[in-house]
């Protein structure tokens, strides 16, 4: 009997090719697409934008029907609002910079996929992510996707052992170019040329400041003009409200101090944004919290790994020191713009050891 798989479909090329591959491998598929957010452009006359729009939902359903398996559109807008968007707003108003895709993958995509899979009697769940699942010594862990330019393991570090044990990544060994060629070879010429969104799905114009202004209930009181200051406390100008800034930001500061200046710290309690030179945005040590370990159940003091603090960051060698519920991370060489609220993910070769949320920079 064919093994049943719940296939998460976005209407895009990656999830569609993933579905094609699983069908050719003999799996029995049921498709599901999430409705997570309404984002109607001004006047409600133009089409919705972003990756979760009505067109994408209908494309996913049409593709599932074309491939011959049932498909369900599931409305998770309330759950998405209560978790991903609430966290996004809360973090910015705390002076941190969140990563909503990490939260969504853990709470909505896998959290809800597992529930639906159980309801539908599906043994596995599958997505079009570029990543791989491996097992060693009784533990499941992620490996980077074979396409290093598309690898998405950074966004998936919060997946649990239970999640990984039931997850299939059909594109893990493929490159994007191979995926496009495969779609073309199966007669899906239009799909093979389809682009992809690089935006946060609920902020299709990439203007997070406008989103906060319209969605954060206490934004007007939080986002008041305040002081730009240097690390020694010297006031050097006025800013437009601390939620408008992120660590490492250089452009859009609206201030000229004779040399390039960067945001080095944000203090919501005093509405102060600290500026510094390029050298002053370099740090070596920070604490991480909300940890999730994959390859190993725990690590010893001083464990060395490659730590990535941003998706497009190559990562650097760091020593890891567990301290109660937190982890002290010490890079061997200073790195730019360690940003509280962002994810740090630890690698051993192409294997994900685990990850956490950047908490406090240690000066």
From TrEMBL:
E.C. numbers: 2.8.1.13
Every tRNA-specific 2-thiouridylase MnmA-like central domain range: 223-276
Residues reported in the UniProt entry to bind ATP: 8-15, 34, 128
Keywords, in A-Z order: ATP-binding, Cytoplasm, Disulfide bond, Nucleotide-binding, RNA-binding, Transferase, tRNA processing, tRNA-binding
Gene Ontology cellular-component annotations: cytoplasm
InterPro entries assigned to the protein according to its UniProt record, in alphabetical order: MnmA-like, MnmA-like_C, MnmA-like_central, MnmA-like_central_sf, Rossmann-like_a/b/a_fold
Listed transmembrane segments: none
Biological process (GO), any one: tRNA wobble position uridine thiolation
Active site, UniProt feature: 104, 201
Span of domain tRNA-specific 2-thiouridylase MnmA-like C-terminal: 285-358
Region: Interaction with tRNA, residue numbers: 150-152, 310-311
Predominant subcellular localization, coarse grouping: cytoplasm
Residues marked Interaction with tRNA (site): 129, 342
Chemical reaction(s) catalysed: S-sulfanyl-L-cysteinyl-[protein] + uridine(34) in tRNA + AH2 + ATP = 2-thiouridine(34) in tRNA + L-cysteinyl-[protein] + A + AMP + diphosphate + H(+)
Top enzyme class: transferase
Molecular-function GO term, any one: tRNA binding
Gene3D superfamilies in the cross-refs: Adenine nucleotide alpha hydrolases-like domains, HUPs, Translation factors
PANTHER family registered for this protein in UniProt: MITOCHONDRIAL TRNA-SPECIFIC 2-THIOURIDYLASE 1, TRNA 5-METHYLAMINOMETHYL-2-THIOURIDYLATE -METHYLTRANSFERASE
Family statement drawn from the similarity comment of this UniProt entry: Belongs to the MnmA/TRMU family.
Job description of the protein: Catalyzes the 2-thiolation of uridine at the wobble position (U34) of tRNA, leading to the formation of s(2)U34.
Protein name: tRNA-specific 2-thiouridylase MnmA
């Amino acid at each position: 009997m064919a093994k049943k798989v719940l296939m998460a479909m976005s209407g895009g090329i990656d999830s569609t090719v993933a579905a094609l591959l699983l069908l050719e491998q003999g799996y029995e598929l049921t498709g599901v697409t999430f409705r997570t957010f309404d984002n109607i452009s001004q006047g409600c006359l133009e089409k919705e934008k972003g990756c979760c729009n009505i067109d994408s939902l209908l494309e996913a359903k049409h593709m599932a029907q074309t491939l011959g398996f049932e498909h369900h559109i599931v409305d998770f807008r309330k759950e998405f609002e209560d978790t991903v968007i609430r966290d996004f707003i809360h973090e910015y108003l705390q002076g941190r910079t969140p990563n909503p895709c990490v939260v969504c993958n853990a709470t909505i995509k896998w959290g809800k996929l597992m529930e639906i899979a159980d309801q539908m009697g599906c043994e596995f769940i599958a997505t079009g992510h570029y990543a791989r699942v491996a097992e060693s010594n009784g533990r499941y862990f992620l490996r980077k996707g074979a396409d290093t330019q598309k690898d998405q393991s950074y966004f998936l570090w919060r997946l649990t052992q239970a999640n990984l044990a039931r997850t299939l990544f059909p594109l893990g060994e493929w490159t994007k170019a191979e995926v496009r060629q495969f779609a073309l070879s199966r007669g899906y010429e239009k799909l093979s040329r389809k682009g992809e969104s690089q935006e946060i799905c609920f902020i299709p114009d990439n203007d997070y400041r406008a989103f906060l202004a319209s969605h954060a209930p206490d934004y007007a009181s939080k986002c008041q003009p305040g002081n730009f200051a240097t690390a020694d406390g010297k006031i050097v100008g006025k800013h437009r409200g601390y939620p408008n800034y992120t660590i490492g930001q250089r452009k859009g500061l609206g201030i000229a101090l004779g040399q390039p200046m960067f945001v080095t710290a944000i203090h919501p309690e005093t509405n102060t944004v600290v500026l510094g030179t390029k050298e002053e945005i370099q740090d070596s040590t920070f604490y991480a919290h909300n940890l999730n370990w994959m390859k190993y159940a725990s690590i010893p003091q001083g464990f060395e790994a490659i730590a990535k603090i941003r998706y497009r960051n190559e990562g650097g060698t760091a020593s890891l020191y567990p301290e109660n519920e937190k982890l002290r991370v010490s890079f061997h060489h200073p790195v730019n713009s360690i940003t509280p609220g962002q994810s740090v993910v630890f690698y051993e070769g192409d294997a994900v050891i685990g990850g956490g949320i950047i908490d406090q920079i240690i000066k």
